[in-house]
Amino acid sequence: MDPLRTLWETFFDWDAMREALPEMLTVGLPNTLILAVSAALLGSVLGMLLAVAGISRTRWLRWPARVYTDVFRGLPAAATILLIGVGLAPLGMQVWGPNPYPLGILALSLIAAAYIGEIFRSGIQSVEAAQLEGARALGFSWGEAMRLVIVPQGVRRVLPAWVNQLIALIKDSSLVYFLGLVASERELFRIGQDYAATTGNESALLLAGLFYLVLTVPLTHAVNWIDRRLRQGRTVALPDPDLDLDLAPAGPAALPGKDAR
Amino acid sequence: MSTVTATSVSLAVRDVHLAFGAHQVLRGADLDVARGATACVIGPSGSGKSTLLRTINRLIEPDRGDVLLDGRSVLGDDPDALRQRIGMVFQQFNLFPHMTVLRNITLALRKLKKLGEDEAAQVAREQLDLVGLAGKADARPAHLSGGQQQRVAIARALALRPQVMLFDEATSALDPELVKGVLGVMADLSAAGMTMVVVTHEMGFAREVADTVAFMDAGVVLESGEPAAVFEAPEHPRLRRFLSQVL
Prior knowledge:
Distance between the termini of chain B: 32 Å
Largest interface: A-B, 37 and 49 residues
Structural class of chain B: alpha/beta
Number of helices of chain B: 9
Strand order of the largest sheet of chain B: 6-7-8-3-9-10
Strand content of chain B: 15-25%
Oligomer: heterodimer
Shape of chain A: elongated
Order of helices and strands of chain B: EEEHEEHEHHHEHEHEEHH
Radius of gyration of chain B: 18 Å
Order of helices and strands of chain A: HHHHHHHHHHH
């Protein structure tokens, strides 16, 4: 048989794809989204705690954050998912029964938190010390100044890196198949793999791959868009040409502006 | 700006010492500012002027010495509450770049003074009006000139109705043509009876606006007095040398 034709049929068997499509849409896609979105939320919250602990002046917060980050960034994601999913299974059994799904989300969150924590920390630390001093001088406590002034600026600066991490998370969510999910819990990759295993044709797996691209490619472009917008600001407003050579006679009459409306 | 006069207090710094590690920055600095008076602190770079200013609102805690408002030591007070009573303006403005001009001013009003959104906005607009920037409420700081940003920073500090204002080289980062506008706002504030400590290199401002000029060198106030005395009849050789270099 023509090898090109074989190749084509291995990956682009439309019938095989059509067969897998309904389950991809109704089971795989929702599960991938649930895994990725909940792990993104939990991972971002944990990551923020890690970031703040990492810059704390208390070493009892700083050191555990450091160790946590080193460990969870250093381990292969697959190993962490297995360790958490299998290792904590007896504990999970008591909390929510034999379902390994929550432990999968937990493992993904813990991994994501290590990376997101480092992203947030670098952003927060890039905010000039003068900003903290300015906020403290107004009477804000350290915590209020961080929450209202420093963290919002720091996070803004690293939004592109944060979205990149979410993309990695979407892809890593496929690794929860290690935990032996039941049919209704399978995500995109697992469904593709199952079809591929039963038919010997990889087309369903390719279809799963296309689904991942549909999720991740818009996000990659969103990163670029966010990045551009953060650089330029919402509106490309030019600096005021007449600057302030005037110490203008104050009042609405002298400065017809937005206040006059 | 007449509203500021009623609440001004007198300020005294007594024998303040401060070291960063082995580096002794303040070695017994003293400063007296009467209620409603303006003191200008002059002196060479590294003499401890900015550090002295920061010990007054306790952004830096002194190792030794005392800071008194209306004769009462504030070193035992809650530092956050103290800083609401003492406004500070920085060389680099330190406006919050991710907020509009209006929100820069209303943030502390809403979160610390617990004013409602509308009330805080009204106070902010009044303050902006006083510094001649009523039309810039919705602009981002980055879209303003340095002089305008510094006037916003002054409005932000004044909105909290402070009893003392500290200025840390407020015009040093500005292009020369923008300095005048900011100094004008500061002079108005001084005339309105605000108690002010102004660290500055603007000798003209010190001469015309200050009630007291204090010359700092190597962490102490070497000489202080009325502007005429300090500028026309300086006693200390180091002050004479400094003045010969800057005037």
